[in-house]
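Workshop exercise sheet. Pairs work together: one partner reads the sequence aloud, the other fills in the structure field after running the prediction. Swap roles for the next sheet.
Pair: D.N. / O.F.
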Amino acid sequence: MAVNQDSSSNTDDDHELERKAHIAADKGFPWVRWGVIVAIIGVAVTVVGVVAGCQPREPGTRIDGDNNGPIVNGDNNVVNIQAATERAAEVAGTDDTKFKEELKKLPGAGERPASSAPWPYAVVDTGTDGLLARDGNVAKASPVGHAANRALIWVDCIATSDFTPPMVTGENNVGPKWAKVRWRHLAQPTDRGISDPKQPQTAWMYLGALAPIGHNGQIPACTG
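Structure field:
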């Protein structure tokens, strides 16, 4: 004859057996708990790394470890190139001749520019006046703002016209050669702007006041 068992008593017994089984498993395999903990920590670190990697970086900010490799031209790597230019300026102090020498020491300075336009240049030898941007490369062109000395300029191509600014002398006088640059037109020549590689508008700057950054300056001639 079958004996009826009390259901609540069975449940308690089952729970007690499960508890003992878990305790035994934990004692016998402590690495299981550590594996779970490590896995959780790993996921947390990965999430933090992804979030940190997505934080925006201000152009011109030096980020240790990012800016120590060769300059890659044509990829609009503004942060690295701006940082390299700033380091050259720091070494040179107020001497633009020394500044140009430091630019020539940068990786790739003696090589033809790689990739595609635009390519980086720095304004040189213009003192506190800076370098005018113009809406043309001829004498009757109008100024559309200016860039500060040692500013980073993005150049698409080089053109030769019939006009050489009358004030240029020495090695800055390269004849009637002009750089077509990425530049948003400003209302007054006294307005100071910046060159942005993603700017669709262009202007002209005198080539003799520009020094190439990370390449030898042999970029294509303008067409059309």
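Discussion prompt: The helical segments are 7-28, 30-53, 78-92, 96-103. What would you look at next?
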